[in-house]
Amino acid sequence: MNSPLSLGGFTDPLWFLLLIGVAGLAVGYAWMLLRRRRDTARFTSADLLTRVAPRRPGRWRHVPPALLAVGLVLVTVSLAGPTAEQKVPRNRATVMLVVDVSESMAATDVPPNRLAAARKAAKSFADTLTPGVNLGLVAFAGSATVLVSPTTDRTQVKQGVDDLRTAEGTATGDAIAAAVQAVQSFGKLVSGADGPPPARIVLMSDGKQTTPADFNADRGAYTQAKAAKAAQIPVSAIAFGTAAGTIDQDGKRAPVPVDDQSMREIAALSGGDFYRAEDVDQLRRVYDTLSEQIGYETKQADASQPWLVLGALTILAAACAGVLVTQRLP
User: Fewest C-beta atoms under 10 Å: which of 93, 112, 262, 284?
Assistant: First the structure.
C-alpha cells in the first residue's frame, strides 16, 4: 500500500517556483546571522556582552526559522498538486461466474462434496465483490444456462448458486460462449461514452470437457476461449478438486481427477489467469484474490491534503517554538 505522502506526479508544478522565495529567505537569514556576529564582534566588548546578556538562546534560536522553512516547503508541495496511486472501488464492471455442475462435482474429496463446497465459496465471492460490480451466473453440465444476468443484486446470484444441481456432461465451451454473450448483451445496455464496462469470466470447473470431445471444435473450450479474448473478456480459470476424486457410477467408484491442463490452457488462450484449489479454503482465497483484482482499480488521485496538513502543523510548531525560545514569532 502506498504511503499518504508518496508521489506519482504533479498537476501544477509551476508552484515550485515559490521555493525560490523560500531559498531566498534561508540565504537572507544566514547572511543576517553572519552580519550580526560581525557587528557584535566589532562594536561590543566580550566582557560587557557577557554581563549584559549572560543567557542567550544559542543554537535553539535556529529551530523556529528552520521549522518555518520546512513548513513552507511542504505547503508548496501541496499547492503543486501531488498525485499518488490509490486503489478505488470500481463503479462499473461486469463479471460472469461460471460454475461446473457436471456429475464429477459430486466427488467427496472436498467435503462434503465439490459442489457443496463450491456453493459456499461462490456465495462468499458474491458478498465480497464491491457494490459497483455487476455479477451474473452461468451453470453448465451437458449444456450451459444463464441463471442470472449481470446485476448488482447479490441476493439473486446467491439464490441461483443455492439452486445448483449436478447433471451429466461437461460443455465447457458452451459455458464460455454463454457467458460472453451475456456480457456483450449487458454491455450494450449500460455502455457509456467510454464504451461497455470492463468484464471478466470466472470459470470454476473440476473436470475435462466432454461435450464436444474436441477442445478445438467450434463449440470447444479452446475455440471459445480465443473468442473471449477477441471480445476482450479474459477468463480466470479455477481448477477445483484433487487427483483422488471419485464418484459412484453404476455401483462402482469411478475416478474423476481434476483437470489442470485444460483449465490452464483456457486461461492462457483467453488472456486470463489460472488458479488451483484443492479445498474450500483455497477456493475462498482464490475468490478473495479475484474480488480484489476485479472490484478495485488503481488510479492517480489527488494527494495534496496530507502535505497541506503537515505543512500547516509545521508552521504552527514554528510559531510556538519562536514564542518559547526567542519570545517572538519567527
Answer: 112
b/e sequence 54-63, b meaning 16+ C-beta within 10 Å: eeeeeeeebb
Query: Would you list the DSSP string of 139-193?
Result: EESSSEEEEEEEES-HHHHHHHHHT---BS---HHHHHHHHHHHHHHHHHHH-BT
Q: How far apart are CA 93 and CA 95, in angstroms?
A: 7
Task: Specify the DSSP class assigned to residue 243.
Answer: T
> How many beta carbons lie within 10 A of that of residue 35, not counting itself?
10
Q: Is residue 2 part of a domain?
A: no
Cβ neighbors of 275 (< 8 A, separation 6 or more) are: 236, 237, 238, 239, 286, 289, 290
Give the count of beta carbons closer than 10 Å to the beta carbon of residue 91: 11
pTM of the shown model: 0.73
Domain that holds residue 285: 89-299
Residue 191 CA neighbour count, 13 Å, CB half: 9
Together in a domain, 43 and 97: no
In a domain, 283, yes or no: yes
Q: Is 42 in the same domain as 108? A: no
- CATH code for position 233: 3.40.50.410
Structural domain tally of the chain? Answer: 2
113 shares a domain with 43: no
Q: Which helix (H) or strand (E) holds 117?
A: helix 114-128
